[in-house]
Amino acid sequence: MAVPLDADGEDGHRPDYPPKTPPPPKKPVEPPRPEGATLRSMLVRPRLAARIANRRAANWTLENAPWEPAKAARHVIGKLAGWGYHLDTDREAGITAVTVLLTRAALTDGGRRVSLHLADQDHQALILVLSHQAGHAPEDERLLREVTALGVASCGTDTDQADGGRRRWALADLDG
């Protein structure tokens, strides 16, 4: 006859099944900071960005290609129609021309892409194009004169020399 196995083992302790694993640490371990690093030297400044809040908005990323200004205008007109704006032929042509001018100017800055932003409020459309390219001088007045001649309510440009990029924008009335 076989001798029964002692379930308690030699020391009278039975192991838990399955064995317990230790709980994960509460906070991840912070990697050591580089020598001589201060909080100020570790901060990274954000790139030029658009912030449109409390209104309908849409945005698109466009590559640097010759067909992109016309594509940008189709995006803007299509989105405005989707938002319920019924533009007459003259107003649609004006918004198309403004979008093409702003996008073409942003593409001349170079780089691989530009971003197009559109927002509406009080029957006006904000068309904003960012070039994301650093090191350019401020825009001359010629572009603003061309955009103003197309009948926009307001327009402007600004350049961020430190982080790069130019913003070009126009505010167009959507009602006649």
UniProtKB/TrEMBL annotation:
Region described as Disordered: 1-38
Protein name: Uncharacterized protein
Organism: Streptomyces mauvecolor
